[in-house]
Write a structure and sequence with these properties.
globular, alpha+beta
């Protein structure tokens, strides 16, 4: 999944970094679809254009920050009500 997009990003990383450091890029196939200032803008732009299709979103940096969009968008919660529960041994 997204193998083509990841390979294209790696191939273009040096060029993108020299021209657009710190921006967020959206890639579909072997094409830069857009450049954005925030992850939120990039996800919104990609979703508007591609709907439920896959597309790659990356921060253009030497070592990008780790981002979990599902947490950012509220689709997952890190403070799950089940996070403190431990499995109980069978009696």
């Amino acid at each position: 999944m997204l193998d083509v997009e990841r390979a294209y990003y790696q191939k273009m990383h040096g060029d993108l970094l020299s021209k657009y450091p710190g921006q967020i890029v959206v890639i579909k196939g072997q094409e830069v679809i857009g450049l954005f200032h925030t992850i939120q803008e990039a996800l919104t732009g990609g979703a508007r254009r591609f709907g439920m299709q896959d597309f790659l979103v990356r921060e253009i940096a030497d070592s990008p920050r780790v981002s979990i969009p599902a947490l950012s968008l509220g689709l997952l919660r890190a403070d799950s009500p089940f996070s403190n529960q431990r499995p109980t041994p069978d009696a």
